[in-house]
Write a structure and sequence with these properties.
The complex is a heterodimer of chains A (518) and B (435). Chain A has 518 residues and is mainly beta. Chain A has one domain: Maltoporin, Chain A. Chain A is globular, with a radius of gyration of 27 Å. Chain A starts with a helix and ends with a strand. Chain B has 435 residues and is mainly beta. Chain B has 2 domains: 113 residues, Immunoglobulin-like, CATH 2.60.40; 273 residues, no CATH class. Chain B is globular, with a radius of gyration of 27 Å. About 3% of the residues of chain B have low confidence. The chains are: A mainly beta (518), B mainly beta (435). At the A-B interface, strand 10, strand 12, strand 13, strand 14 and strand 15 of A face helix 1, strand 6 and strand 20 of B. Chain B: Pfam families: DUF4876.
Chain lengths: 518, 435
């Protein structure tokens, strides 16, 4: 009798637990459970949207048709990237930061959608040489420089919000963003940089047929950066250089001109066409113009340099569905031309009077890319996204007198694979990405190094890295799980990657984050 | 409609692609840099009346904004016209150069008519010249005045220490500045009446001072001299190759309570002593070392050479007695410049004294490295500049001086009347032995 009781109890426990075990092993076939339904929005946003949607950040009204499920996401994490040798020493070898990010897109009604984003980053950038300014991509080549290789503490804020609405055939939308960066150092040299970038985009679309919308969009923005470099060490030397591109400097103002101000604005306009259901032909083309001026705030605020940048972008894609396949073929091209202007002044006897100017600096970038995105649904639970891509990029930087040039052309085939598996209460996504960058052309000329020999080594290193072929691989894992009813999911995410150059240098990146989706 | 839209965007994309295929190779002298064409002339004064031609004319055109130098050489030009008369202006070349602000320097060898005279170096100097593209129908021309640089074989300024030294605590120490004067000739020279003066103008403040006198005279804000009268007294002989040390305080500065990083100047030949009007700021007088005779000062307390190297220093012999120099109108210099800021216009007035350039036997222009903005004294006295600061408030300048280079083969200090060529920046040592 007594030996039967444990058996009975065991049998009872087993009978109680077995449904749970069965539930854990349950495959979602053929329809999704209610829990999985909410995770579907996560899968749509993280998997389908980036690879198959027409979402164009400049074409505001495209958000109307692409943000189908509402989703909000709050994420906090850590990111680190580094390199054994910087590809561009003026941008540094990498960064290490903590970030907090909130993103949301809400379908308010059948005809309107709103979206927003807020980002805060706190960390540092490392290994920066010959550049004490922030936002290098906006202000290059006209930066203040010191001979030291430095790290800079960094705080970054982004607030972005937009709204789009459809009224019968007409749809309109607008988006505004505010971005601010503070970078500084607490040892000599001590730059303190504050940047502010405000952008406004607006657009409209007209439904020319039941399916097709033709859109027109435009944007305007204002950019400022204030920069001041101090030296506190009583024994320190303080020669600051104002670089003008490819190892040249504004010789006249080298020394103690430690305060600069950048001011400028940008304008853009574009045309597009897309379908409401996202299938078929989508196309867009836009043109952006930017002008930023550098002034010496420590020398009567005189403007010494300007950059003028024009960027053309065009994209043509076709999206279709066939059985379990969703496919998208895209061809895109982009060309950027950036000219640098130097202003020359008289002796400054009675305030500075501009006597001449020249545009000796030119940067050009051309890129073309052909990609094919394919989403295959093995089952409603298992999705696979394949993204083979072939890109051709040409970068050309020139300074006219003395003659200097760095030109490279790369052919970059790549492949991205994303596998997503939906469980009853969770979603697992694993991705793999690899690029092979083959250098197909390079040209490096550096005449008259004696004009300013201190920075020559840095530019030779830049050429050494920018001319090198490379291979990289990356892994991405994201796991979403239902935690409580009030949240769609909680998630953990990790991204890591590594790049190998054929000159035996390497780079790496790591991002770990967690968050919740609503 | 669909076809039209597709065609339209296809055209846009193709045009983008064609833009990608342009040839981006560098083309020198592209249209993004504007070039200015101008003629370069040289102006000859009557001092060139015995000169037949100029040979090996080297011209250096320095772009003040970018720091680039362009140099070229003209083999020779004739100074006399067909009738054998001296030409006042000769064209030497036409230049095509990028627009900007330039300094032009010229050096040539003058071939004299008299076979007894060997070739002489001549120089020319043009600062802060704006060269921009001209729309005029005639080619714009610029003239450089040539001169014979003053390369005498007598007393030369061998070393200037103005930067001061640092105490072990890191604070600057005052009182050990000095000038070293050397007899660069082969005969005994007498230092009686030798003056040292600091220029009234400085490199970092460039103004359009009026009246302009630099061609003939040098305005100074401080002048002090060795007692005696040149050509009359012979109390202070200086052997060939020997030096005089003229310093601020002729004491041993390395003693306790002072600065072990400084020098022992108790054996200096002369010290300048200032009677201060402020009892809280007084000078030190070593009774064992003769004092210089101060003729003029701008300071109400004590003077020392500018410790960041902004001013120039000249040395020579007065052509008149002390009293005539300090009281005579010919040696007083009242000058001004017009200050303009927005709608505010004001004449800023100053006073100094001036010495004729003919009295000056040697001069050294000082400036921050690469920051010589203008000629604060006549380029005939010094065509270049020396430096001990690489930047204003250079924390590394302390303990550094500018010292004249020594030609070990000729056993002479180098004097080409160009301090950039003649001087080097060194660790200061008043008792340095030239070898």
């Amino acid at each position: 009798m007594s030996s039967n009781r444990p058996c009975r109890y065991s049998l009872f426990v087993l009978l109680c637990v077995s449904p749970l075990c069965g539930a854990a092993q349950e495959h979602i076939q053929p329809s999704l459970s209610s829990h999985s339904h909410s995770l579907e929005a996560v899968r749509e946003t993280t998997l389908r949207l980036p690879s198959l949607s027409y979402l164009n950040p400049s074409d505001i009204v495209s958000n109307l048709n692409e943000f189908t499920p509402s989703l909000s996401q709050v994420q906090a994490g850590y990111r680190h990237d580094g390199a054994s040798l910087a590809v561009d020493a003026q941008q540094g070898t990498g960064a290490e930061l903590m970030f907090f990010r909130v993103q949301s897109h809400l379908r308010i009604s059948k005809k309107s959608v709103a979206w927003g984003e807020a980002v805060y980053e706190n960390g540092s950038r490392q290994g920066i040489s010959w550049n004490l300014n922030s936002d290098y991509q906006r202000v290059f080549p006209y930066v203040i420089a010191d001979t030291a290789t430095v790290s800079m503490r960094r705080e970054y804020y982004l607030f972005r919000g937009g709204y789009a609405h459809q009224m019968n055939r007409l749809s309109i939308g607008a988006e505004m963003s505010y971005r601010s960066t503070i970078e500084y150092r607490d040892r000599d040299p001590r730059p303190k940089n504050t940047t502010l970038d405000v952008q406004l985009h607006f657009g409209g679309g007209y439904a020319v047929s039941a399916r097709r919308v033709v859109g027109l969009y435009a944007g305007v923005g204002k950019y400022t950066q204030q920069s001041d470099v101090q030296f506190m060490n009583p024994q320190g030397n303080r020669v600051l250089y104002h670089l003008t591109g490819l190892g040249m400097q504004y010789f006249r103002f080298k020394g103690l001109q430690n305060g600069v101000k950048y001011e400028g604005g940008n304008y853009s306009a574009g045309l597009s066409t897309h379908t409401k259901d996202g299938l078929g032909l989508q196309a867009s083309t836009d043109l952006e113009y930017e002008n930023i001026q550098k002034r010496l705030s420590s020398e009567r605020d005189i403007p010494i340099c300007d950059v003028f940048q024009t960027k053309w972008r065009g994209e043509l894609s076709w999206t279709g569905q066939w059985r379990q396949w969703d496919c998208k073929a895209t061809f895109s091209a982009e060309t950027t031309k950036r000219e640098g202007q130097e202003r020359y002044y008289d002796s400054g006897l009675t305030n500075y009077k501009e006597i001449a100017s020249s545009r000796p600096f030119i940067y050009q970038h051309q890129g073309m890319q052909l990609s094919l995105s394919a989403l295959y649904k093995f089952t409603p639970a298992i999705w696979l996204v394949m993204l083979p891509r072939l890109a051709y990029d040409v970068d050309n930087t020139q300074y006219l007198t003395p003659v200097r040039q760095l030109k490279t052309a790369f052919l970059v085939p790549s492949l991205k694979l994303d596998l997503s598996r939906m469980f009853s209460r969770s979603l697992l996504s694993v991705g793999f990405l690899s690029h092979v960058g083959r250098q197909v052309h390079h040209h490096f000329v550096f005449t008259e190094p004696q004009v300013f020999d201190k920075s020559v080594g840095m530019f030779r290193n830049n050429a050494f890295m920018q001319q090198a072929s490379y291979w990289d691989a990356g892994l991405h894992i994201r796991y979403d799980f239902r935690l409580v009813r009030s949240l769609t999911s909680a998630f953990m995410q990790m991204q890591l990657g590594r790049r190998w150059y054929d000159n035996h240098q390497h780079g790496h990146n790591l991002e770990i984050s967690m968050g919740v989706t609503l | 409609m669909k076809t039209l839209i597709k065609t339209f965007f296809a055209i846009i994309l193709v045009s983008v692609l064609f833009n990608s295929c342009t040839n981006d190779d560098v083309s020198p002298g592209g249209s993004a840099v504007n070039y200015a064409k101008f003629g370069l002339d040289i102006s000859l004064s009557q001092a060139f009346s015995g000169v037949d031609s100029l040979v090996s004319i080297k011209v250096k055109v320095h772009n003040v904004s970018t720091g680039r130098d362009s140099t070229f050489t003209v083999p020779s030009v004739k100074c006399l016209d067909a009738e054998g008369k001296l030409q006042s202006s000769i064209s030497i070349d036409t230049l095509n150069i990028a627009e900007g602000l330039y300094n032009v320097e010229l050096e040539a060898n003058a071939v004299h008519h008299s076979k007894l005279k060997t070739k002489s170096i001549v120089r020319g100097n043009l600062m802060n010249q704006s060269l921009v593209k001209s729309t005029a129908s005639t080619l714009p021309r610029f003239a450089i005045d040539l001169f014979f640089p003053n390369m005498g074989n007598g007393f030369v300024i061998a070393e200037i220490f103005a930067a001061r030294t640092l105490r072990p605590s890191g604070d600057p120490y005052t009182g050990d500045q000095y000038f070293r004067i050397t007899n660069n000739s082969d005969e005994v020279l007498y230092a009686d009446g030798l003056f040292i003066a600091e220029s009234a103008f400085q490199q970092m403040i460039h103004q359009d001072y009026k009246p302009y006198v630099l061609d003939k005279e040098t305005p100074v804000q401080y002048i002090t001299k060795i007692p005696g009268m040149h050509g009359v007294d012979k109390k202070y002989p200086v052997q060939p190759g020997a030096s005089l040390i003229i310093c601020d305080n002729a004491i041993d500065h390395t003693t306790a309570g002072r600065n072990p990083n400084s020098f022992n100047l108790s054996k200096a030949n002369f010290e300048w002593y200032d009677e201060s009007t402020n009892p809280r700021v007084t000078d030190i007088d070593n009774p064992d070392v003769p004092n210089m005779e101060r003729l003029y000062t701008y300071s109400r307390t004590i003077w020392g050479p500018h410790d960041r190297g902004f001013y120039s220093y000249v040395m020579g012999f007065l052509g008149v007695d002390n009293h005539t120099f300090t009281t005579g109108k010919d040696y007083q210099y009242d000058y001004s410049y017009r200050f303009v800021y927005g709608t505010t216009v004001k004449d800023m007035k100053f006073h100094a004294v001036k010495v004729p350039n003919t009295w000056i036997v040697d001069a050294v222009v000082l400036a921050i490295k690469d920051k010589k903005k203008w000629n604060v004294i006549s380029p005939t006295l010094d065509n270049g500049y020396a430096w001990f600061s690489t930047v204003d408030h250079d924390q590394q300048r302390y303990g550094k001086s500018v010292r004249r280079k020594y030609d070990a083969r000729k056993h002479k200090l180098i004097d080409t009347n160009d301090s950039q060529n003649d001087f080097e920046t060194v660790k200061a040592d008043p008792w340095y032995v030239f070898k």
